[in-house]
Write a structure and sequence with these properties.
homodimer, 340 residues, alpha/beta, Rossmann fold, UDP-galactose 4-epimerase, domain 1, seven-stranded parallel sheet, two-stranded parallel sheet, 11 helices, 13 strands, 42% helix, NAD (chains A, B), UDP-glucose 4-epimerase (chains A, B), UDP-glucose 4-epimerase activity (chains A, B), EC 5.1.3.2 (chains A, B), NAD(P)-bd_dom_sf (chains A, B)
């Protein structure tokens, strides 16, 4: 029995594949390499000493997906495959809806027809928008996300809940806060393709001299130091949450729908400047930055209440911000040697 | 230059094709015949004396859709093709999401790549849920619909608005209230496939003796006679609204996004028992009924404020409830002769 991991060579996907293999799951990866690279597969094998099955194709190709389900006894899926750049999603909405919805629905058709349960969906705290209260727990009202990316996540959640109810299946919607860091081995991490969209990869490249300066978008927010606050969760901790969420679904043999929803964060907010300073301290390196105007669409503050995941999954974040940022710098060194 | 009409042999689609042909549009129909029949095409030709192009395939087959766009100079689309049974959508959610979203997104990919504008979308008053105030105008806040069918309509609206904004295209979202009636020729109308889901086809079949009794779901609502109130719009009036909405988009040569949203109704609510009595009076026939318990998920009352369509499209409903119901009975007589 194998777990299908779509987008399994991507950032969170690759770290989760490592944890699944370490927990003796058989893993079948489908990844179209649109935002990942083949060497990640080799490095997963190096870290774990195990070989996941890998299929390089786009999940919109339903006939190829059907062949994967024919060839393997799939017992669950963790669906990471998705286009995920917020800014790009505004410029290319049709592609985002197509990529993110077709891939999900194609998999659900296979699940439906073959009676498979156990589906874990990569959702995001973006479904809460700027929440009225902090911290954000799972009962916080959802807001229509401003970005197309966020809407594809909210639609995905709706589709999956209807799937679970109609066919009595088991699903988890995992709402990630801000994943950061790389594997402690230093050989898998977040691949910087183009100009990074997220804070930590940009900090990393600035420290490495690839970018001249970090742009800090606004220092007049009502926060500790005026910069925006997020909840940065270490990617390996996040990956482990997928394994426990999956095990919970698989141990549930009832014949009713199960819809688990968990916020995955640390429970603690950090400002942009706190992250910059933590990076400098952790790695003894300078990160030049400049304050810019606020960026449209950015929210002020978001951090999670993580009690539910702790209580129901016995999971919590275990890695400090500084520790996580040390792995980022190790990863940059690895990328330097690869490029050398 | 031709207008693509998807679902053009369906209920509202076929009436709209007639109006388009009467207004000298070239029409290309794509319809998979899943909820329509070929004789409708013949009857459209009989009514109009014109021949639309017809392709019988499922819009999920992107490669066939591309061939249609290659073969014709498509200048706009009216997208009727969709699965539309509310109850069924709860039981088969994955099929509903697949049918209704893939077809829409496949067409938008063609529009995007070929620079085509002018897209008219069949939406529904279901996006308002049970509105807090009557009548419902276009600024009434949307609610997450309870049914999967309704969610596919709300998602379709979101996708189209993002499409229009990103690519500077022109779209209309037409929110139908409750379409009823048949063409005055009596040879196209709402095909009763299986047990009717909607009130008027059920009334028609009860009057015809096909159903024993009409079930009236609840007579203790806070309405004029205790039965639920809806806004019944004559299908030919509704079809004409599509033509004027399309002309408005096509006459707009600006280079910015246009997002038109119109409620299409009569502006007047009628209770279930008022419809039954109007049918009996109009057609001099008895409609036996029994009062049943309320049906879960039914809203109490919904009728439109139609000022916006009147002002901007110079369109309004022109046909009385009784007149509309007379065409229904004519259509039943036609179906009788076909079955004889």
């Amino acid at each position: 029995m194998a777990i299908l991991v779509t987008g399994g060579l991507g950032y969170i996907g690759s770290h989760t594949v490592v944890e699944l293999l370490n927990n003796n799951f058989e893993v079948v990866i489908v990844d179209d390499l649109s935002n990942s690279e083949r060497f990640i597969l080799k490095n997963i094998e190096e870290i774990t000493g195990k070989k996941p099955v890998f299929y390089p194709f786009d999940l919109k190709r339903k006939e190829l997906l059907t062949q994967v389900f024919d060839a393997h006894q799939i017992d669950g899926c963790i669906n990471f495959a998705a286009s995920k750049a917020v800014g790009e999603s505004q410029i290319k909405p049709v592609d985002y809806y197509e990529n993110n919805l077709f891939s999900l629905i194609n998999i659900l058709q296979e699940f439906k027809e073959r009676g498979i349960s156990n589906f874990i969906f990569s959702s995001s705290c973006t479904v809460y928008g700027q929440a009225d209260q902090m911290p954000i727990d799972e009962n916080t009202p959802l807001k229509l996300p401003e970005s197309v990316y966020g809407k594809t996540k909210q639609m995905g959640e709706e589709i999956l809940m209807d799937f679970a109810k109609a066919y009595h299946r088991k699903i988890s919607l995992l709402r990630y806060f801000n994943p950061i860091g790389a594997h402690p081995s230093g050989i898998i991490g977040e691949l910087p393709i183009g100009v990074p969209n997220n804070l930590v990869p940009y900090v990393m490249q600035t420290a490495a001299g690839i970018r001249e300066k970090l742009n800090v978008w606004g220092d007049d927010y009502p926060t500790v130091d005026g910069t925006a606050v997020r909840d940065y969760i270490y990617v390996v901790d996040l990956a482990k949450a997928h394994v426990v969420a999956l095990k919970k679904l698989m141990e549930d043999h009832s014949d009713v729908a199960t819809i688990d929803i968990y916020n995955l964060g640390t429970g603690k907010g950090s400002s942009v400047l706190e992250v910059v300073k933590a990076f400098e301290t952790a790695n003894n390196v300078a990160v030049p930055y400049q304050i810019c105007d606020r960026r449209e669409g950015d929210i002020t503050i978001a951090y999670a209440n993580v009690d539910k995941a702790q209580k129901e999954l016995n999971w919590k974040s275990e890695t400090s911000l500084e520790e996580a940022l040390r792995t980022v710098w190790q990863w940059q060194q690895y990328l330097n040697t690869r490029n050398a």
